[in-house]
Every structure is written in structure tokens, then in C-alpha cells.
Amino acid sequence: MSIEFLITSIAVILLPGIGVLYTIAVGLGRGFRASIVAAAGCTVGILPAALASIIGLAAIFHTSALAFQVVKYLGVLYMLYMAWNILRDGGALDVKKGDINKEPVSMMRTAVKGTLMNVLNPKLSLFFLAFLPQFVEVGHPDATATMFLLAGVFMLLTFIVFSGYGLCASLAHEYVIKRPGVLKWLKRSFAATFGFLSVRLALSDR
User: Fold this and answer.
1) Domain residue spans in the chain?
2) Of 26, 140, 147, 161, which sees the most CB atoms within 10 A?
3) From residue 98, how far is each of 29, 110, 178 by CA, in Å?
4) pLDDT tens sequence across 73-116
């Protein structure tokens, strides 16, 4: 495993995407513990795409337009649902004084939502299909095992970076609850971003 792989992976993970947005939203609304669970869910959601790319199933999305379109629109619908869930009362960004110290309603639901975001992203498998082979030497006797290792390291880095985002968001909790205007702006911004991502995914061909 090269230093280039680590640097490239961290750079990719740091880029704001739906997983980052979700983890930050959970951190702001429900605290650090819940954001850790959200980060774990997003990380687990990477596994199907990583496995698919390693065993070659991601190639289906290149050859089957129907398979790509089905998964794509499921992802679009889910991101629109997340936008609505952020805006509604009692949703992901419904921050109230004292909430950060309360036991979350359902840690499992938090994790599942994070997992579904990445599972329903067909481009993730295509990303791994293009990304992992770049760091495996041609003719490597243990190429498959090496790609599994690289995918595992990528997932670990994802969890660490997302947890960092969640920590920063949870530390801003008290600041947010004292400023309703800031919370309203955050809700609209997060919802608009999820809406934008859903539109971009819907308009994408591959």
C-alpha cells in the first residue's frame, strides 16, 4: 500500500458528499455518539460497492442501462426523502436544548439511513472499479487480496474522517441552539444540497 493511495483516499473522503452531509446533520442535531453511528452506517454502505468492484459486478452498470437506472432513481428518491426529513419538524436537524444529552430514539435507524445512502449510489461501485486497480501492480500474484486490503483501508479512513466531521458538528450544537436563525439557514442549506445532489444524479448518464 502506497502513500499515494492514502493521500488520494483522504482527499476523496474529505470532499463533501451525501455521507458527510448526513454525518454533520446528525452531529448537529443529536450529538457526537449519534454522529459516530451515522459515520459507521455510511462506512458499511461502502462495502457492497467495494465488493462489487473487486469481483467485477460493477461492470453490469456499464452494460445494463436498466440496472443503472433502477439503482440511480432509488438513490434520487432517497436523497429527496433526506431533504424532506431535514426540513420537517422533528427531522434530522431538529435541534433543541438538551437533546445532545438524551439517548437517541434509534441508533439502528441512524446507521441504516447512512448505509442506504451509499448502497443506493450506483456511482460508488463505478468509482471503486476505476479507483482500486490504479494502486495494484499489473500481474500482481495477490491482486484480489490487495484490492480487499485497499478497500478496507479506504473504509477505515472514511470512518475516521466522517467521525471527525461529526465531532466538529456536535461541538457546534450549543452555538446552533442559541441561534434559531442559524438553524433555519442550516436546514435550508442541507435540504437544498440534498435536493441538488438528487437532481445531479437524476440527470447523470453514467
Assistant:
1) 3-8+18-203
2) 26
3) 10, 19, 12
4) 776 776 677 677 767 655 555 555 444 444 445 788 888 888 98
Q: What's the rounded Cα separation, in Å, for the pair 71 and 165?
A: 28
Residue 45 CA to residue 41 CA, distance in Å, equals 6
What is the spatial distance between Cα 101 and Cα 177, in angstroms, rounded to a whole number? 13
**Distances, alpha carbon 121 to alpha carbons 11, 17, 42, in Å:** 19, 11, 11
Task: Round to whole Å and give the CA distance between 32 and 174.
Answer: 13
Position 205: which residue type? Answer: D
Q: How far apart are CA 54 and CA 76, in angstroms?
A: 25
Return the pLDDT at 97: 46
Q: How far apart are CA 101 and CA 119, in angstroms?
A: 30
For residue 56, give Cα distances in angstroms to 117, 132, 174: 22, 12, 47
Is the pTM value of this prediction over 0.90?
Answer: no
Instruction: Note whether 177 and 171 are within 8 A (CB).
Output: no
